[in-house]
Amino acid sequence: MNLFAPRNTWYPLTWSRNVTRSLSRHRILGMDLVVYRSEGGGVVALDDACPHRLAPLSMGKLKGDAIECGYHGMTFGADGRCVRIPGQPMIPPNARVSSYPLREKMGLVWIWPGDPALADPSRIYDLPQYGQNDWHAAEGDALRIETNYLNLADNLCDPAHVSFVHLSTLGNSASEDIPVEHTFSEDGVLVWRWIRNAPPIPLFAKYGNFAGNVDRWHYYDYIAPCIAVIDFGSADAGKIADPIDRDRGLRIFACHFITPVDDHICIDHWLHVRNFALDDGDVDQRLHADFRIAFNEDKEILERIEKVAQARPNAKTIRLAIDAAPQRMRRIVERMVAAESETRALA
User: Fold this and answer.
1) What are the boundaries of each domain within the chain?
2) 3-class DSSP state for residue 239?
3) Cys-Cys link to 325, which of 92, 137, 157, 269 (CB 3.0-4.6 A)?
4) How many C-beta atoms lie closer than 10 Å to residue 176's C-beta?
5) Is CATH 3.90.380.10 the classification given to domain 131-337?
6) 192-214: per-residue pLDDT in tens?
């Protein structure tokens, strides 16, 4: 396993709602972790292998804030240090497992798998509209996709596919020939386009009660290596003269937080934040049903592509104009990985 991913960054590990006083096992960057909530309410993640015989600690018992291995009873505190060896009063200094910095934000547990000294919580992504009075956030699912996480990131830097993959929910033919625009930064890419004076897409036709054509937008904001937030919406044609006034229309942020599991599997933790139907739980469920259709369409095509790529390891592909943002996305990740490798080499 040689997952091409930086370590010194925050990754989503799981939904906060899933972490309890029971031991659970999670896999990220090819590492198996045991995760639980402490008596004080904090979240703990340790390497899920006892250093004695490599028995998974997730098969053990939680005793206070420590884990007792289910094989020979070695017990490890929340910091990973062994605090008890049955029948042996002396505890060797190497009797420990790795522990990882964790924080909770936007309904998710975030993990820093790299150098703990560099784990700055202020670097965890924050959507300004999340938690604001005029916006409503609704947590979605954790969609397992059998493809490398960068392939999903490609998809989430690419508004062009919506016109063909998501015709029942997020797209229609009016956008097929509208070119995409993009800007690049040190840590991400922004790709967007406006479709003016066109029929609303199926999703907004449901919730917008539009009498005629609309102006609609897609802004795909990718932050390396694992975050993609899609700002999309619609307004009556001609209502929004300045793109900065998108709040005047129906607006949704579809947030995708990607967990790289291993070389060939990733998990898409998705939620949405919207500026309409703020207190309507029924709209939550209806929108989630629409999103599940759309995101499973992405899952299906990405997994089929993965199978073809594995069957044709020497296949040559071509690049189109719409590939500028995905290619830049991959170069940003390459720079992050290279910078970490250089730092390790100098240490």
Assistant:
1) 11-121, 131-337
2) coil
3) 157
4) 12
5) yes
6) 999 999 999 888 888 988 989 99
